[in-house]
Amino acid sequence: MHINLLLEKLDSLTVEEKIGQLVQLTGDFFEKDLDTVVTGPLKKLGLHSDYNVYNTGSILNVTDPKRIIRLQTDYLEQSNHKVPLLFMADIIYGYRTIFPIPLAQACSWNFKEIEQAASISARECYDEGIHVTFSPMVDIVRDPRWGRVMESPGEDTLLAKKYAESTVHGLQGKQPGSVPQDKIAACVKHFAAYGAPVAGREYNAVDMSEHMLREYYLPGYQAAIDAGAKLVMTAFNTLNGIPATGNEWLNRDLLRQEMKFDGVLISDYAAVEELIMHGYAEDAATAAKLALMAGVDIDMKTAVYANQLESVISGNEHLEQLLNDAVYRVLKLKNDLGLFEDPFRGLKATLQQGTRILSDEHKTAARSLAEQSIVLLKNEQDLLPLSKKTKISLIGPYAEEHSTLGMWAIKGDEADTVTLKEGLLKHIDSDQMSVCRGAHLLPDHAREPLGKYVDKLPVETVNEDILLQEAIRHANESDVVVLALGESIYQSGEGGSRTNPTLPETQAKLLHELSQLGKKLVVIVYSGRPLILTEVAKQADALIQAWYPGTMGGEALANILYGTVNPSGKLAMTFPRSVGQIPVYYNELNSGRPNLPENGAYRFASRYIDEANEPLYPFGYGKSYTTFDCSLLSVSRKEIGPDESVDIEVSVSNTGRFDGKETIQLYIRDRFASVTRPVKVLTDFRQIFLRSGETGTVQFSIREDMLRFYGSSMKYQSELGDFEVYIGTSSQETPLHFSFSLRSEEQS
Ligand code: NOJ
User: Fold this and answer.
1) Could you confirm whether domain 628-742 is CATH 2.60.40.10?
2) Is 268 among the catalytic positions?
3) What does the alpha-carbon distance between residue 479 and residue 424 come to, in Å, rounded to a whole number?
4) Nearest Cα residue to 398 out of 470, 472, 487, 481
5) Residue 149 Cα, ligand 1 centroid: separation in angstroms?
């Protein structure tokens, strides 16, 4: 529809109809029996009984295509204005073909395949009638106590930017304007800084300096906006005392003016109403006004806009204008999706032809990304890969577990999942492997706090001692024990904060008992966060971080265990040694009293007296079955002006027995600046695949724009001076080092 027609459409709407466009409800509000709707969902939500649901603009989390057709058809018949409904859903890392959780995906550092994963998600959504997904989530995370780290690309800003860009491109395509066939609209979230709740406790306050916000937390959202994301979602949290959803500075000055976002801003679930609980709005009318003034276009699942906006804006021209602007943005989104031309976006035809969900192509992509997301943390005496001749015992609650999709796979079907056992049986015969559970997934005390999710946990029928004795028997009869352990998927995700993110005690005990047998132990950890693995790592001969690897996870893991695939994942988030180290992240500041190794136990340094400063596994870390040697071939110059670059060539040799991929990481430290700069900032990286014995070259180019940061006057710019460059295979293993200077044009 041409923009003039869109404006005409806007003009033709009554105030009630306009407000309806800003209301998002769930599907139960639209069921045929309106009496039940009025006494049921409407009443429960507190919507006025005369609210006309056929004015509502969008629907949340209805994902059944037939129901989508039914609701849209009915809606268009019943509504006066005939503006089609928008269907939005949480398709976070796959629709039916489930990819690894985003934190795992980021460990692949393969943003081409991450883009492909998003485009497969979009294709499956498109085929099933979904228009908008609430992805990507690009909240920077430094605290693994927080359950939602699983949805984030981790602690680093460069990775977050790349994840944001590739996901938006995969979901929406790269073209501005209309969203083409096979693509859906992306919604970046949670604006802003939702990933930094105090003490890692869900929904807790966020308090951070503007410098920290701009330097580390905003660039991910900005990258998604620059890539064209059509929507932004507000965050639940307060930011420096003001709830994000009612924060005019954040959403208008920063998001719309500075960051140039001109799409739809949607609140997070009930966040408009929660302005009251926050102690920011004294009643629903104030909440409506504050949210509208802050620039929130759509009120997700509360009655606040629906009940209050009409009287709030009445007689106030400024607010009326804000309402019109908001409605225009929603109509524009519908228009960009082509809904005025075809409210079903080809869904009717697709339903007849059959959808492409779970196609072989999609599953192959899911397996490939899973293989690259899995991180090998330890491999003593090259225990891995396993020989097919080795008799193994596969033990643990995850040995045959289908529930490995993570908390946000709302359309994922566990029945589609390839389990670890099934994956292994593609490599070996069943008489090479014995399988048993070994322990309960969770102790009783950890089940109860999971509330309604307890019903989804496995029912543990066998006594733990019996399970343990059986496991010991199996282990004794095998050459190598493969232990598949982990937290429950319900222990991470939204509302999944943990003060002590370790392996459940039931499984820690199993590991301890088996480690006494003198058998080689391969431990595989399934989790939605970095767990504290210090004790686990001591007992395991080989340790693999599997995350929640998605539909094809069992095959991906088996391919790694048997060496068909050489692991290449690199951690996107630091693994702490202990809870007391949290938050621990690689790009910290030096402090005035750094803990220098040569000072030994010198007391007055920035250090712990009961723990090392270094984490268990640092950012960027991940082992391979082969070994790589790097050396600096050339550095073009040691001094650059603003328009010049330092060009670097690094030679990389695969010195081990296996072909493999390495990620060469380039970190920079700005020695002196108007604000202190981190000890290392990931500035670029390259992935290189080398056959055993092969040598290759990777090139980097450092330009002035890569040295910019927010200085003391909050301007984004570089400062002249000296820089250290560290190149290596993790944030801690950076054997290549040199310095260079940035000079002004006159100096250089
Ligand atoms: C709440 C979550 O914070 C958000 O990420 C999600 O998209 C919405 N609920 C909608 O389900």
Assistant:
1) yes
2) yes
3) 16
4) 487
5) 14
Q: Is residue 569 classed as helix, strand or coil in its secondary structure?
A: coil
The predicted structure's pLDDT at residue 331:
98
Residue 603: CB atoms within 10 Å: 7
State the Cα–Cα distance between residues 102 and 99, nearest whole angstrom: 8
Residue labelled with tokens 């970190």: 667
> Ligand 1 center to residue 176 CA distance, Å?
26
Kindly give the residue spans of alpha helices, DSSP state H, lying in 259-303.
274-277, 284-294
φ, ψ at 130 (rounded to 5°): -90, 140
Q: Report the separation in Å between the CA atom of 228 and the middle of ligand 1, taken as the mean of its atom positions.
A: 21
If we measure between CA atoms, which residue out of 737, 587, 688, 581 comes closest to residue 145? 581
Point out the ligand 1 atom lying closest to the alpha carbon of residue 190.
5
Atom 8 of ligand 1, residue of closest alpha carbon? 269
CA dist., res. 623 & res. 107, Å (int): 12
Q: What is the DSSP string of 598-641?
A: GGTT-SSSSS-SSS-SS-SB-TT--B-SS-EEEEEEEES-SEE-
* Residue type for position 51: Y
H-helix or E-strand containing 368?
helix 360-373
State the catalytic residue, choosing from 127, 268, 299, 336: 268
Among 376, 313, 369, CA closest to 571 = 376
The full length of the chain comes to 748
Domains of the chain, residue spans = 360-570, 628-742
Indicate the top mutation candidate among 90, 151, 274 to test ligand 1's pocket, ranked by most ligand atoms within 8 A of CB.
90
Per-run averaged pLDDT (10 residues), the chain, 748 residues: 94 98 94 73 90 96 96 96 98 98 99 98 97 98 98 98 98 97 98 98 98 98 98 98 98 98 98 98 98 98 98 98 98 98 93 92 98 99 98 98 97 98 98 98 96 94 97 98 98 98 98 98 98 98 98 98 98 98 98 94 96 98 98 97 97 98 98 98 98 98 98 97 98 98 84
What residues does ligand 1 touch, defined as CB less than 6 Å away?
90, 134, 189, 268-269, 494
* Distance (Å) from CA 342 to ligand 1 centroid: 27
**Candidates 86, 87, 236, 494: which one to mutate for ligand 1, based on the most atoms within 8 Å of Cβ?**
494
CATH number of 360-570: 3.40.50.1700
Rounded to the nearest 5 degrees, what angle is found at the Cα of 305, between the Cα atoms of 208 and 255? 35
